[in-house]
Amino acid sequence: MPLDTSTTYPLTKLRLDGRRWNELRLIQAQISTNPASSGSSYLAMGNTTILCSVHGPAEGRRGDATGGAAGSSGAVVEVDVNIAGFAGVDRKRRAGGSDRQSGRVASTLRSAFQSHLHTYLYPHSTISIHVSILSADGSLLAAAVNACTLALVDAGVPMPGLLCGCTAAMSGSASTPMDPLNDFLDPLLDVSLPEEQELPFLTVATTTSVPGRTDEDEDDKKVAMLTMDSKVHYTYIETMLAVGVDGCKQIREILDGVIKGSSQR
Amino acid sequence: MTAQRQASSASQIPHLSPAELSYLYTSLSLPGTPIRPDGRSPTQFRPLSAETDILPGTNGSARVGFADGTQAIVGVKAEVERTVLGVQALSQAEQQEYAEGNEGADGGAGAKQGSTSGQGSWVQMCIEIPGFRDDDALPVFLSEMMREPLVESVSGGEKDGDGDEGGMVGGLKGRLVINRRWHWRLYIDVLLLSQPLSYPLPLLSLTTHLALLATKLPKLKSKGEEDPFFDDDWNAAEYLYPRVRTTRASIPGSIHKVRPPVTLLVISVAENIVFDPSREEIAVADTVLAISITYDTGSNCLKLLSIRTVDPPSRLTQPSVPNSENVATLGSTAAAEASAIINPSTGEEEVSGVWRPRRGGVKRATIARMVKMVLEKGGVGEEVLDGLEGVEVG
User: Fold this and answer.
1) Average pLDDT value for chain B
2) Range of lowest pLDDT (A132-136, A138-142, B243-247)
3) Is A36 within 8 Å of B56 when comparing Cβ atoms?
């Protein structure tokens, strides 16, 4: 039997790892794992394992060309992503300590958190986030967003709400327009690495809307980040987005539990 | 960050004033009983927490965290690779076959030698420290310092009879040989999770040791010179460092007969020898030595593998000015002159309370004493290795 989603999923309605379309992988998380940093977290989504530590907000480094001028109105967020050599199935050799994937994840995280955090409270300072990916099994960016959120909460950096990321895919190539009468493709929540390599997927991160505006429909639906690298017909985007946003909501509840659980200890 | 990148292997000099350095040096050099800033005894290590087998995607992994928050994670991955035989090796093999034809006993031993010798380049070590590129001086120096004893240590497996259970013929290099055409390549990736608060060598070495102890390779099903074919049952996998049932009552379960080396950082301050120094202690050290040790399986005692001197950062500190030479206090200095003493370890004349940067150099007797403290029965080395054995592996 071939082991790919597009042939087995229509037959069994079960994915390669045995999940249904709307099921997340097991999420385990801890905060305050590293006493040497301002805030730190450990997050495992399935086999994707991430350690994150936050330093700051602290005074930016002098002599840095951007440090003085750029941070005058608010804190500058720096993100450093390191994918360990043993993270993948095969050991990867990287030249010079960084590669394209980690660079992209870092820049996406930086722009997401730069606009998400209340940086105006810390002018002339730097919040540096260090993400180490110990084991990579899909949804790297989404897991990194969740790990960073936990570490930033641990560091006590004010933010309007938890920023939670999740991925959503379609169970086929989805390159032709969606036929509403005969739709055989299902959206899939929280993709793993084999699915990520085979199917079109997007990563979405949502946050709760600012407190004060208590509009119940708007709650949980503030999309803060959305990236997509693969090709899909535009008629499917809405379905995928809806599933992704729903996944973010589930993840928010889990992260909320982690934060509340750790403060009770 | 740029300043850190330029820092040499002896990096991370804390910002201490000459007066503070002098105070530290004086308290560490008190005859017999040095007083350390954190109140440890000279041979006491910092408390640490350790766990192994934390990453399911690796052949072996370990995490060690010191109480001050510095943590390291090591992941070991193994790959099967085709052995490229050089011209020299080929001709050597031919010679062996020739010799085998001529003299039975001698040739047999020669062939065995040929099949069990591996190459040091099969073990790759890569250290990542936040704020450093992996081709910076510090990570490269550290990884070479740890890789060298690892591949060069050949424990006495051949002495006490080959094929002995739990022995490892030819050391780690020999263990990596599958047959003449295939071998394992070992990637050891070391991840330091936080900025190094002290010289990270002991932390990285202990973590690597634990990760290697936990490393398993799949069980080989093919025989002899066939292309390698492995048992796909991970439960049947064999440890890289074979282990035997224990004979000592103090440690439950199985122990390793052959163990990877451990590199300890030792400093000397005047006549005193201090283990596992913190950053402040390194800053005033006369010498910093990295001593690699392992168990010698033949005689069941510790064996010295290598000693390396580490460039002591005390060389780069600012000196203080004695009152007699100070322009500002000229005239009120008559009393201070009398207190000039000879430093016993360096032979230089010093005024007490005045910091002079160390010029390097160490007496042979001091090095001998350091090595003895590490190697002796019930000494520091044995204590460390026994402590690491206590960490549950697998």
Assistant:
1) 76
2) B243-247
3) no
B102 within a domain of the structure (yes/no)? yes
Please check whether residue A181 lies inside any domain of the structure. yes
A83–B contact, CB cutoff 8 A: no
Are the Cβ atoms of A135 and B71 closer than 8 angstroms? no
Q: Residue A207 sits in which domain range?
A: 10-264
> Identity (one letter) of the amino acid at B235?
N
Residue pair B138/B7 in contact (Cβ under 8 Å)? The answer is yes
In a domain, B4, yes or no: no
Contacting residues for B104 by C-beta, under 8 A, at least 6 apart: none
Nearest alpha carbon to residue A24 among A192, A199, A145? A192
- Among residues 6-65 of chain A, which lie with CB inside 8 Å of chain B? 34-37, 47, 49, 51, 53, 61, 63
User: B101 to chain A, minimum CA–CA distance in Å?
Assistant: 43
Element (H, E) at A110: helix A100-116
Report the alpha-carbon angle A218-A223-A226, nearest 5: 160
The CATH number given to whatever domain includes residue A38 is 3.30.230.70
Chain B touched by A132 (CB under 8 Å): yes
In which band, very low, low, confident or very high, does the pLDDT at B104 lie, cut at 50, 70 and 90? very low
Do residues B246 and B256 lie in contact, with contact meaning Cβ atoms separated by under 8 Å?
no
Chain B residues with CB inside 8 Å of A130's CB? 130, 193
User: For chain B, what is the domain count?
Assistant: 1
pLDDT for the residue B73: 92
Identify the CATH number of the domain in which residue B175 sits: 3.30.230.70
Give the pLDDT confidence score for residue B346 in this predicted structure. 58
Query: Can you tell me the distance from the alpha carbon of B262 to that of B391, in angstroms, rounded to the nearest whole number?
Result: 15
pLDDT of residue B62: 92
DSSP H helices, B215-264, are none
ipTM: 0.82
Q: Is B2's CB within 8 Å of A63's CB?
A: yes
| Strand ordering across the sheet containing B262-269 | B272-275, B262-269, B287-296, B301-310
